[in-house]
Amino acid sequence: MPMPKPRVIYWFRTDLRLHDSPALKAALDLKPESLYPIWTWDPHYVYRARVGPNRWKFLIDCQNDLSQSITKLNPHSKLFVVREAPQTLFPKLFKAWRITHLVFEKDTDAYARDRDTKIIEIAKEAGIEVVIKTGRTLYDPDELVKQNKGKPTMSISQVQAAGAKIGEIARPIPAPKSLPDPGETNLDFGQERPLKTPDINAIQRNGEENSYSTLAGPNGDFAAPTLEELGLKPATTPHRGGETIALRMLSDLSDNEEYTATFEKPKTAPTAFDPQATTLLSPHMHFGSLSCREFYWRVQDIVDKHKGTASQPPTSLTGQLLFRDMYFGAQAALGYAFGQTYNNPNCRFIPWHLPSDIDTSTGLITGKHLTDSATAQDHFQRWKHGRTGFPWIDALMRQLQHEGWIHHLGRHAVASFLTRGGCYIDWERGAEVFEEWLIDHEAACNIGNWQWLSCTAFFSQFYRVYSPIAFPQKWDKDGDFVRRYVPELRGFDKKYIYEPWKAPVADQRKWGCLVRGDGSGGSSTSEDGDLLVYPKPMFDFAAQREICLQGMKNAYAVGLRGDDKRVLDGTWRKLFDDSAEGPTEGESGPPGAMVAQEDRGEAQQAQDETTTTTPVPKTRGSAAGTKRAAGQTTLDGLVTRKKKK
Ligand SMILES: Cc1cc2nc3c(=O)[nH]c(=O)nc-3n(C[C@H](O)[C@H](O)[C@H](O)COP(=O)(O)OP(=O)(O)OC[C@H]3O[C@@H](n4cnc5c(N)ncnc54)[C@H](O)[C@@H]3O)c2cc1C
């Protein structure tokens, strides 16, 4: 009997593009009789992963653009968005569409691995052949780990060494010129509706979530859901998704050969906007609307033919892509443990404020946190909502919330401020806010960079703290960035733009904004008529910095990692005395986390803090840190500015 011709589901997930898709090529190489390009609308992301309206919008843009591109190649085809969890949907789809093969791009995120293991099992049971290809990163993260002696990749030089063993990064594959018909798209089966609770994204909604009304959507046309169907608040980001836009952006970048060949990340201004100083291709990398190899080779070819001195990894553009692979390699080796301190052998244990709540039966963080200090909780909320009273920090956090993207050194500034260089709050809280608001949120990169910035992994020079005043001044003396994102301060003289609380009250009045309060009333008009209000700084930065340094120094001296028995069973408390930052007294409490305790009031807190300000020597030799990895000096260095032309 002749073999039946393949009937293939191509499952889009991390690869919303047609160009350079090794998995799509593998699907087409099967010469299918029918090719079904599908997206499964997975309730995990709708209800259980933090995603704000801006990232939803970017995703939907990417899906709509891809669908149109598919239809251009074959008017009978499109991206078929099917609204059910893949685990329950696939067995039904396999039967209904008489599928022989399932093809997809490999995803090494912790949740995705679990999901895919299950799907592979289901496919096997149904007699379906599964084809999986790497395409999301320059190297297969599992292969990187294997070539790094089975260990997580923790530096660029490790990625380069492991990469050299794997071989040259593959050249991109052109987009297909045609696509096979999809065949019948009947859905003669019931829909398994997901449980709507718990809904971690409830705060993102102002309407009812209704995206699971039917399998093929309200019009039966397999369209991607709209923000309205998701009950989401309106998106505010100016950044648009889709392969068409991504390829145009890459083309504009490569037209600017000088910029591309000489790009050095530490010389790009975090205060630049309109245009920003870096490529802003990260959300396209996240959704796969741009292939990382297309990006890499477009840049490398320009570098190779550049007449002058081209930049090199780690600061060059290709170096940035290697950083991305480094974090994917670290995540691939550690799985869920990578995303938390608890049970993570690579992560230093530091008794931060607002530690994660841990489910000791699974060893995983629950997504909730303990409020060990009402002051820290207040600081966290003020940081999150851009009301710290430090205009540089507030401008960045407001840009993040509104636009979903901030420059890398801006991310450094706010991450350092929240953790070891200001609030002494757990990096996991910051990573959650970024997860909610970034349009480029990439679990591996977000987690890894938060660990880097908080000096819990990858980087250890905790005595290098970003000042919210001196650092932005190096880039933007006039404070244009602050004026853009903190409009209350628009009229302030540049002398006070980063320290508005120092301006004489008469001048504050003249410039239309009074510096007072904690910002909880918003920037609304004060009782003085037309004047705006901007909050006072939430603490004395210099004093707080010293407290943090002392805490870090102490935690480094104690030297625990997240998988230390004493972290797991909670006896770490015996090792931290009261001279460290924060309340650590008491020997009982939940494992891995600080003792939940009553707030002792601001006055008492202030008194505690003044007793813990022992100055820390600022010499480099004083930190009990690990060896410095290549690129660390320059990456967050405070060096001369370079604007995108
Ligand atoms: C606390 C913190 C959290 C971060 N969270 C994320 C995240 O969730 N997703 C994300 O993609 N990046 C994250 N980054 C890394 C980096 O800030 C962004 O990738 C970068 O700013 C995106 O802008 P761009 O595309 O203009 O970058 P460019 O400078 O133009 O770099 C080109 C590409 O290289 C990659 N890249 C650059 N820097 C890094 C880096 N440090 N780590 C990993 N990849 C990098 C990105 O894909 C980026 O698009 C984070 C950084 C910090 C400090």
Produce the secondary structure layout.
Elements: E1 7-11, H1 22-29, E2 34-40, H2 43-48, H3 53-73, E3 80-82, H4 86-96, E4 101-105, H5 110-125, E5 129-133, H6 141-147, H7 156-166, H8 243-255, H9 257-262, H10 282-287, H11 292-305, H12 317-334, E6 356-359, E7 364-369, H13 374-384, H14 391-403, H15 408-418, H16 427-437, H17 443-453, H18 470-475, H19 480-485, H20 505-510, E8 513-515, E9 532-534, H21 541-558, H22 565-569, H23 602-610, H24 632-635
Parallel strand pairs: 1-2, 1-4, 2-3, 4-5, 8-9
Antiparallel strand pairs: 6-7
Helix pairs in contact: 4-5, 6-7, 6-12, 7-12, 12-17, 16-17
How would you describe this protein?
- This protein has 645 residues and is of the alpha/beta class.
- It contains 24 helices and nine strands.
- It has helices at 22-29, 43-48, 53-73, 86-96, 110-125, 141-147, 156-166, 243-255, 257-262, 282-287, 292-305, 317-334, 374-384, 391-403, 408-418, 427-437, 443-453, 470-475, 480-485, 505-510, 541-558, 565-569, 602-610, 632-635, and strands at 7-11, 34-40, 80-82, 101-105, 129-133, 356-359, 364-369, 513-515, 532-534.
- A five-stranded parallel beta sheet has the order 3-2-1-4-5, sandwiched between helices. The chain has a two-stranded antiparallel sheet with strand order 6-7.
- Mean pLDDT is 90; it is low at 580-645.
- The site of flavin-adenine dinucleotide has 29 residues, from α10, α12, α15 and α17.
